[in-house]
């Protein structure tokens, strides 16, 4: 029989602070982490607001001998990964045979841009000798493996904004079939570099004030950064050691739009939701909460609402739907990890986090978006949606744990 997969540890770092408790406290209070973009990022930018990790000092968290090998996206992964392990109450010996699967949408952009600056602007003839191992997309997974002593299957997943959800789904599959008893999974990204921000400006999807998903006055994405991690554990292993459980990761569904590179597909998103419910063995009527992809772009919010109608039918009207991106921002490859942490906490605490900054529903947005204030509600099961550029979709299903 397949193993049931349980969430026994959480870790996070985001614009809402360091640690999963800080993330959850802000979400429960409906407080966003949007601030003026730090001037140190670069000049000549039109971006006004961002969801950046506050008061972050890498030199206070990592030694001077470590920093030359740690791009910021790796730093965030280590911080959130360590927290998830500690939160789960696991020893280094127990983690040794675990898996670690990390998603990233950007990889080591900080390292890339530092290298280009030296070569093209400063005219240097050589790159730093650690450029490749520091900036490669798998660097965060490797550094988590090294610093946590994880020797089981370790790899990275890159599927834009669905990276973390895909990573969690792959990790859960390994636990389910008995390949490993423990798997650390989630996502990390650090997109605040001049070149990457200029590229996002060119897409013309960034808001200049706040993220307001599903709201009539929504004006686009507020970029974020950070990492969100789950410790996944087989039921048998968790029971043997008496672990505290946040939720059961009951299923995962994936699909590809095979359509437009940026415009979302209602059919593709709905197929991922339906596949996730089938994998979890749940009927649509058993889902109470949707942690939406909810980017606050005109196209996404309408398409996601339509996909929920298509997948859930008449039950869609009874769903509590919220986008926590309205508070922690769109952290790209880390978003699905932060949102998975939020979904697990919602089930554990019987509290639906709100969609912050909501004024009134936009055209084509006709569901219950839990505006502005968290809602106490007993939740049986929930889904977390991640729908990425390129039409890459991943949906996680979590169920409340009463075992």
Structural class: alpha/beta
Q: How would you describe the shape?
A: globular
List the domain count as a whole number: 2
The helix tally amounts to 14
The stretches of 5 or more residues where confidence is low (pLDDT under 50) are: none
What's the helical proportion of residues? Answer: 25-40%
What is the averaged pLDDT score? Answer: 97
How far is the N terminus from the C terminus? 18 Å
**CATH homologous group name of the largest domain:** Thiolase/Chalcone synthase
List keywords for this structure.
35% helix; 14 helices; 11-stranded mixed β-sheet; Peroxisomal Thiolase, Chain A, domain 1; 403 residues; two-stranded antiparallel sheet; 2 domains; alpha/beta; globular
Descriptive overview:
This protein is an alpha/beta fold. The protein has two domains: 5-241, 3-Layer(aba) Sandwich (Peroxisomal Thiolase, Chain A, domain 1), CATH 3.40.47; 252-399, Peroxisomal Thiolase, Chain A, domain 1 (3-Layer(aba) Sandwich). It has 14 helices and 15 strands. Strands 1, 2, 5, 6, 7, 8, 9, 10, 11, 14 and 15 form an eleven-stranded mixed β-sheet that branches. Strands 3-4 form a two-stranded antiparallel ribbon. A hairpin with a 2-residue loop joins strand 1 and strand 2. The radius of gyration is 20 Å and the shape is globular. The two termini are 18 Å apart.
Brief summary of the model shown:
This protein has 14 helices and 15 strands. The protein has 403 residues and is an alpha/beta fold. The chain has two domains: 5-241, Thiolase/Chalcone synthase (Peroxisomal Thiolase, Chain A, domain 1); 252-399, Peroxisomal Thiolase, Chain A, domain 1, CATH 3.40.47.10.
